[in-house]
Amino acid sequence: MKRTRSQTKESISVSKSESLTASSSKLPFRAKKIPRLPSSSNSIPPPLPTPKPLTSTGEMELALHHLRAADVTLAACIDAFPTPHFHTHRSPFFSLVKSIISQQLSNKASQSIEDRFVALCGGPHSVGPDSVLALSAQQLRGVGISGPKATYLHDLASKYRDGLLSDSSILEMDDETLYKKLTMVKGIGPWSVHMFMIFTLHRPDVLPVGDLVVRRGVERLYGLKPLPQPSQMEKLCEQWKPYRSVGSWYMYRLVEAKGILPLPPPTSLL
What we know:
By secondary structure, this protein is mainly alpha-helical. The protein has 2 domains: 89 residues, Endonuclease Iii, domain 2; 113 residues, Hypothetical protein, domain 2 (Endonuclease III, domain 1), CATH 1.10.340.30. The chain contains 14 helices and no strands. GO terms for molecular function: alkylated DNA binding; DNA-3-methyladenine glycosylase activity; DNA-7-methylguanine glycosylase activity. Belongs to the alkylbase DNA glycosidase AlkA family.
């Protein structure tokens, strides 16, 4: 039976459609790319916990136990000297002010200037950002504070007034954040921050790598030559973590003893 022209066209159209369908089934399927959600690693990390101060109950005992077990050489030093005691009666702000005043001065000269400065403020309880900002550079120079140090004190007080620093926030900051914030203050460098963290805040794991006395103590403790550089101190004292502040305290005692360990008290035989 003869096909009509329309039937022929329809047949051709169907065969082409089937052919395309068959060939398309052999092509690899391309999955759509699904956009990735931002991973948690790209989010802002939570703040580090503030370490317990060395004045917390039982913390010094934990520190000494760890250091004795971690470093037998340091253990002999620990046994030869009294247990460290950390205490301060000053606010963080007052302690930072004292740190600035005492720079490059003897203890006697520093104390004399500090006493006059406190009297100028109206007494110990009146030393604060507002009272410091109320004093002119000329008034500060009148009690023995140099021009640059007057600028440093005003900068510290201004950062308190502007909310960049406060006693409460300093107590809550982790070590890394605190270091960054305090070194933004004019006249406060790494050494001053390390001393503040150890002796005012009693942070347990601070290693003042630039402190000459601590470096000298490490040199004597391990019998090194020459004096270890700041870049070497991190590696040398790695085993003291997380109580490098206590290890550093013993380096001061070792240097004071001229590198010779005192004899331990005699042990009772009874």
